[in-house]
């Protein structure tokens, strides 16, 4: 294997699928093109993703794939993907999509490099779905209930996604699907370190690569649940705290428990449930990342949590202009809003 390919080399190679790919299905794909007639990439920190369609026959449907090409060496990903694929086939969850790790994936400079071939999942990214339904609390409530079920099923199946966040959660009709399995944990991977730490706005602030097991989704699952519950009751939180790359929390809020503006606004909602959920999140920040309680347990014991007593009083809320400036600075690039696949391994 030669030097690792860069983005330009991948871009040139995928323009000729019969020569570039070893997989028979990928040899005949038509890639999605941009307005200049070139393959349209979605780029993250670890990979570039192309959308491609297989031609359908008389008795077969067209299949659409996300072709994920790695931008840097990926060490033991082949073993990890094999373990993940085997476990997902066994537990048969309704939330994952078909994927294959292809060690001999794409040919560049006469050498073969690995890729991931993943079923393209259509739907709205979580934050886009929420924005469409901000004025429909019943719809957000229904989504929150589905979220509890999904999290419960993942726990029961001994699966942890590793990066639960808006860019990896797709909502279509009444169903939720998860994409991007690079950081996933299954029992066969016990004892290894995490390959990524997930999106900053959703992860426990103390999580490290040593924290890799069944428990790694628990904090982000609770953050998403609280965010949905709060937006059901106060849609204005979206305008004030959504940056385009979060829901309503950012990383700094977990370092400023009770002091940043979001905590004040949650209290002003005047809901006992929201107060208890916010207290539970704050209490979990004080726990070791691998000691966070699962969502079902938190919801059954909401009244038992106490807000950390060492947190000083909150300062005045920031002026609206400052919040709007932060929103503009964190705006999501247009391709991230439109694509059905998002790589966040650089967060």
- The CATH superfamily of the largest domain is Transferase(Phosphotransferase) domain 1
Average pLDDT taken over every residue: 87
CATH-defined topology of the largest domain: Transferase(Phosphotransferase), domain 1
Helix content: 25-40%
Number of DSSP helical runs: 14
Provide the β-strand percentage band.
5-15%
Largest sheet: 6 strands, antiparallel
Number of strands: 9
Low-confidence sequence ranges? 312-347
Shape: globular
| Cα distance spanning the termini | 29 Å
Q: Class by helix and strand content?
A: alpha+beta
Tally of discrete structural domains: 2
Radius of gyration: 21 Å
CATH class of the largest domain: Mainly Alpha
Describe this structure in words.
It is built from 14 helices and nine strands. The protein is α+β, with helices and mostly antiparallel strands. The protein folds into two domains: 7-119, Phosphorylase Kinase, domain 1 (2-Layer Sandwich), CATH 3.30.200; 124-338, Transferase(Phosphotransferase), domain 1. Strands 1, 2, 3, 4, 5 and 6 form a six-stranded antiparallel beta sheet that branches. It has a three-stranded antiparallel beta sheet with strand order 7-8-9. A hairpin with a 2-residue loop joins β5 (99-108) and β6. α6 packs antiparallel against α7 and α7 packs antiparallel against α11 (272-285). The longest helix is centred in the middle third of the chain and has 20 residues, at 137-156. It is globular, with a radius of gyration of 21 Å. Residues 312-347 have low confidence and may be disordered.
């Amino acid at each position: 294997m030669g030097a690792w390919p860069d983005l330009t080399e991948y871009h040139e190679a995928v323009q000729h699928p019969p020569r570039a790919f070893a997989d028979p299905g990928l040899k005949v794909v038509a890639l999605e093109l941009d307005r200049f007639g070139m393959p349209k990439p979605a780029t993250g920190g670890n990979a570039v993703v192309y959308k491609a369609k297989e031609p359908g026959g008389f008795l077969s449907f067209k299949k659409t794939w996300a072709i994920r090409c790695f931008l840097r060496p990926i060490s033991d990903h082949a073993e990890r993907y094999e373990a993940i694929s085997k476990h997902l086939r066994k537990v048969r969850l309704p939330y994952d999509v078909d994927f294959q790790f292809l060690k001999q994936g794409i040919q560049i400079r006469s050498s073969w490099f690995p890729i991931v071939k993943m079923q393209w999942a259509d739907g709205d990214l979580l934050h886009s779905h929420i924005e469409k339904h901000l004025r429909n609390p019943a719809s957000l409530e229904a989504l929150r209930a589905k979220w509890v079920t999904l999290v419960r099923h993942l726990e029961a199946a001994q699966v942890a996604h590793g990066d639960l966040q808006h860019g990896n959660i797709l909502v279509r009709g009444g169903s939720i699907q998860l994409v991007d399995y690079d950081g996933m944990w299954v029992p066969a991977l016990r004892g290894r370190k995490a390959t990524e730490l997930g999106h900053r706005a959703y992860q426990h602030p103390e999580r490290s690569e040593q924290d890799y097991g069944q428990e790694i989704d628990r904090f982000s699952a609770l953050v998403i649940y609280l965010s949905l519950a709060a937006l059901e009751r106060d849609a204005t939180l979206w305008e004030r705290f959504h940056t385009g790359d979060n829901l309503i929390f950012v990383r700094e809020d977990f370092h400023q428990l009770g002091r940043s503006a979001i905590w004040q606004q949650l209290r002003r909602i005047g809901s006992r449930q929201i107060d208890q959920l916010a207290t539970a999140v704050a209490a979990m920040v004080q726990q070791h990342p691998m000691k966070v309680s699962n969502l079902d347990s938190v919801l059954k014991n909401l009244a038992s949590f106490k807000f950390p007593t060492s947190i000083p009083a909150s300062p005045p809320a920031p002026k609206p202009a400052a919040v709007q400036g932060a929103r503009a600075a964190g705006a999501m690039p247009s391709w991230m809003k439109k694509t059905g696949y998002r790589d966040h391994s650089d967060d």
